[in-house]
Design goal:
By secondary structure, this protein is of the alpha/beta class. The protein has 2 domains: 10-236, Rossmann fold (3-Layer(aba) Sandwich); 303-404, SCP2 sterol-binding domain (Nonspecific Lipid-transfer Protein, Chain A), CATH 3.30.1050.10. It is 43% helix and 13% strand.
């Protein structure tokens, strides 16, 4: 039994998903809601297991109980009390009534989350396997994240198969949990989240007992969010869009072993995704959203305009990203010349000159314009080798947020 004071508090929410499924985007959206705070990965599942174990073999051994089931229940209650204490203070400091946590590794600790938080609600977030595979490989140019490394170790000769293996195992776990606890779970698919965010989020917040306001979407990327582990591209994201749907259509079917292929397709069918066929990477993708017919407005059309007009306007507008940033950043633009940015006292000056700098950024003119016009994410560009940085990476990152951030 959960103590009365814990039952009276708003129940916690956990986003459950595998890696590269859009959980960072979803937590930014949830964190923007006036009643919910959602930090980056806190690893609460792992913490609950560790706390439970430590308490069970210390304080738990002093409890006067007649059976081990009662001891475990009381230890779970004490674990809950400890987590509630600091998470409650966190929510209070944020001016929120409840909290939501989204560590992807929580899938490994579902038993402990259920025991410690019997009143918790769960958002089960899914994404098409092939897009997850593509995103996992794309973000791994400099190394695989710890959650994916074990699968690469099992299949070092086939990275695609390793990523499919990860998706199959974690999606199976998530589906089984959702089926067993249907009344506590709400399903969200990444594709519907970005294609129809208003309807998806309205239903999701209603399931959590919360109201919905269309204006929330306009505030997601201008609202400050606590930083931490998660998808780095979110720092430069300006809107919810469908641009990442269908990128897995380039993954070859031949890279997926037959046994994994069958498991993957069974799960895709259960989630009502199109099945992957033998011609997957040769035929038109069956799940790429319809093209937007309205022409995007191009705000900056040439490199000179980037440095002479666009950047000077950032200073005039009192851009918050300029606060406390000092240094010199040189841009070597292939097809666009060399430009020096001098940042000092919340001002930025751009000159077409050579010289020594704290950091140097090398990029093509075409990619620079894609970045400035919001059609290319800086983190994705870096991961793809389109941006090369030398010198002070911290300064280069701050300049990137100034030029290309939300």
């Amino acid at each position: 039994m959960v103590p009365e004071n814990q039952l009276n508090a708003a129940p916690p929410v956990f986003v459950l998903s595998c890696e590269r499924s859009g959980s960072t985007l979803l937590r930014y959206i949830i964190d923007t809601h006036p009643q919910v705070c959602s930090p980056a990965h806190l690893h609460l599942g792992q913490l609950c297991r560790s706390l439970f174990t430590s308490l069970f073999y210390s304080l738990g051994q002093t409890m006067q109980v007649t059976d081990e089931t009662t001891r475990e229940r009381l230890v779970a209650v004490e674990t809950r009390r400890i987590v509630d204490e600091f998470m409650g203070r966190y929510a209070q400091a944020k001016g929120k009534q409840m909290w939501c946590e989204k560590t992807t590794e929580n899938l490994q600790y579902l038993r402990f989350l259920r025991d410690v938080f019997p009143d918790a609600r769960y958002i089960c977030l899914y994404r098409n396997c092939m897009d997850v595979v593509h995103s996992s490989i794309e973000c791994s140019r400099l190394g695989f994240m710890p959650e994916l490394a074990p699968y690469v170790q099992k299949r070092p000769d086939n990275i695609v198969a390793a990523m499919v293996d990860s998706w199959v195992e974690k999606t199976t776990t998530l589906l089984e949990f959702e089926l067993a606890h249907a009344s506590e779970c709400f399903r969200v698919k990444y594709e519907t989240l970005v294609a129809d965010p208003s309807q998806t989020l309205s239903a999701m917040f209603a399931a959590l007992g919360l109201g919905w306001d269309e204006e929330l979407l306009n505030a997601v990327f201008s609202t400050p969010h606590d930083q931490g582990s998660g998808d780095r591209k979110i720092l430069f994201t300006k809107k919810v869009d469908t641009g990442s749907i269908g990128r897995g259509s380039t993954i070859s079917r031949s890279s997926i072993p037959d046994d994994l292929f069958e498991k993957m397709n069974r799960l895709l069918a259960r989630l009502e995704y199109p099945l992957v066929g033998d011609d997957w990477d040769n035929a038109p993708s069956p799940y790429v959203p319809a093209e937007v017919t309205t022409k995007e407005i191009e705000t900056v059309s040439n490199v000179d305009e980037v440095f002479r007009d666009y950047i000077s306007q950032l200073s005039k507008n009192g851009n918050a990203a300029l606060q406390g940033v000092n240094g010199r950043c040189k841009f070597e633009v292939d097809g666009g010349g060399t430009w020096m940015l001098t940042l000092r006292e919340s001002q930025v000056m751009a000159e077409a000159v050579e010289g020594e700098a704290d950091c140097t950024v090398r990029i093509s003119a075409a990619d620079l314009l894609e970045l400035v016009n919001g059609r290319l994410n800086p983190i994705a560009a870096f991961d793809q080798g389109k941006i090369h940085v030398m010198g002070d990476y911290d300064l280069a990152n701050k300049v990137g947020q100034l030029l290309f951030g939300a």
